[in-house]
Task: inverse folding
């Protein structure tokens, strides 16, 4: 038995590889974090390093996540390599009792640190855990090309993006009835983008990062990966449709969206409808 035999590690690694296969993770692009259940931490304890590495301040505080453990991709590590060398590409980190620092307890065997977006992931775990009664476990950031393309030509508003994505494929309003938030272009990897994304994630499960990618949250890998996949596919249809250069002759009407919501028992954000 080793760390890599644990079911949770297998599912984390599979999700990284699925993202690579989708073409969302050129080089070291993107990052994934998972907040472990206490029982999963117990299962993992025999495999943690004998000597924890030093505490590192995050520049942000999430006191509701004090003492929690996360699995995270490493900064500068390639999603493409996770399946081949998870011990080098991934880490397990522990949060301190104040909720403002982490220390590495496993992985990154050749050195390094968790993703540069760890402050953003951590703060968004904090916000989403509060918004969902603790249900959110996964935060995932990917460089989804069609969503990025949209951010050059659509106004950067939550309403414009949510409407365009809902109307690009019939089942989108069922998958993300709350819509998506939009964060303007910002320098990646610091406390500023963490705080701006948190503001959106108080209300939304997903945030578009202008000219950068997509940031999503969810209770497990299937739902979270599925949300990324659905939004990016919808964006692809939007881009394909615009790329024809032909005038749009028909689309899903706002009343059509309302009818889908009624049939599937979801509540659409009414202020985004006309
Ligand atoms: P990391 O390699 O530090 O995870 O950064 C990749 C990225 O996508 C930053 O937004
Ligand atoms: Zn990125």
Result:
């Amino acid at each position: 038995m080793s760390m890599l035999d644990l079911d949770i590690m297998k599912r984390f690694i599979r999700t990284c590889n699925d993202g690579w296969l989708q073409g969302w993770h050129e080089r070291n692009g993107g990052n994934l974090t998972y907040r472990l259940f206490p029982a999963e931490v117990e299962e993992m304890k025999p495999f943690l390093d004998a000597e924890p590495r030093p505490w590192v301040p995050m520049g942000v505080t999430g006191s509701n996540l004090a003492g929690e453990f996360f699995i995270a991709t490493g900064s500068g590590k390639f999603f493409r390599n996770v399946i081949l060398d998870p011990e080098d590409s991934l880490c397990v980190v522990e949060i301190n009792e104040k909720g403002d620092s982490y220390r590495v307890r496993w992985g990154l065997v050749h050195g390094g640190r968790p993703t540069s977006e760890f402050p953003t992931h951590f703060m968004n775990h904090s916000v989403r855990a509060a918004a969902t009664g603790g249900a959110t476990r996964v935060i995932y950031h990917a460089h989804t090309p069609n969503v990025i393309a949209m951010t050059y030509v659509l106004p950067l508003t939550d309403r414009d993006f949510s409407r365009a994505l809902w109307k690009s494929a019939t089942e989108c309003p069922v998958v993300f009835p709350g819509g998506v938030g939009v964060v303007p272009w910002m320098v990646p990897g610091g406390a500023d983008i963490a705080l701006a994304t948190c503001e959106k994630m108080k209300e939304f499960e997903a945030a578009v990062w202008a000219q950068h990618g997509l940031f999503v949250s969810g209770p497990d890998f299937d739902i979270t990966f599925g949300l990324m996949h659905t939004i990016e596919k919808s964006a692809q249809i939007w881009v394909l449709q615009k790329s024809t250069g032909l005038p749009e002759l028909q689309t899903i009407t706002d009343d059509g969206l309302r009818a889908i919501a009624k049939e599937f028992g979801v509540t659409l954000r009414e202020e985004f409808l006309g």
